[in-house]
Sequence to fold (342 residues):
Amino acid sequence: MVKPFMPQLVYFEPDALNYPLGKLLKEKFEKEDVEIRFTTSHNQVRNLPGENHFQKYRVAKSTLVVGVRKTLKFDTSKPSAEYAIPFATGCMGHCHYCYLQTTMGSKPYIRTYVNTDEIFDAAEKYMEERAPEFTRFEASCTSDIVGIDHITHTLKKAIEYFGQSKYGKLRFVTKFHHVDHLLDAKHNGKTRFRFSMNADYVIKNFEPGTSPFAKRIEAAGKVAGAGYPLGFIIAPIYLHDGWEDGYRDLFERLEGELSKEAKEDLTFELIQHRFTKPAKRVIQKNYPMTKLELDEEKRRYKWGRYGIGKYIYPKDEEQKMKDVLGGYIEKYFPKAKLEYFT
Fold:
């Protein structure tokens, strides 16, 4: 069982203590007897304990930095949403394939931002620009925010903020089952609560430090019972021996364990496994014993944003993947919407 995250070490930016949430978190960690240090910036955390890279990396993954988000220009977040809303960065999970391996680089510690009202004000401006169309905000582009929200309650605040907004909708995805504090949030149907799911082989081999499948599905049932629109991201779709059976088993279990109400307004997002050359180097350094297949010869190269290319599956394998999983969605969840395959 994965327990709710509690950092071993916490850094505060001095400015964070000028905000109510910053003060609240400092009091909380003092009561919990967690070691507290100070840093001039959430981007400048140095001298983490550890004898070598391996130890420092693991310490960083259990370190929380409480800071102020200075950049309030939101990144786009296609195809999931119009914009990424930056409440947190980093994740306590140890998924071998995660793209945060490279985007976080040498800073794999977890950051939470306490200037939430300023972030909401920035979101309001984006909503005004697009009104009367809805603007969707993705809260989990660079973090698994559910994993820390039992500590910060920032996500709960955001759910209620967008619940009363005229033109805003919120989305996020998680691999954690610690959702009980979010069940009574006044979401008004404007938050799409998604869970990341995968074949058993992928969860067991490549997703250490996250909640097991059974706990995620149980949490999804609770979320649907609380009236949230529910979704599942199947990612990364990873080809392995018996992959068709593995993914069929996933959909059968989902279909068997979700209530009728949970299936009424359901979305799926399908994302194939991909990696970049820098990601491969970092993954092999951080998880030297990984079984993750990272062979460029077995992939095709696709140019991405900012001129950084990635290795994805060849077109015939990609099409088969799309057909097989799309077929499972049609068979087991005929009312569900497939939002995209990428």
In short: The chain has a mean pLDDT of 95. Residues 9-341 form a domain with the pyruvate-formate lyase- activating enzyme fold (CATH 3.80.30.30). Residues 18 and 115 are 9 Å apart (CA to CA). The longest helix spans residues 315-332.
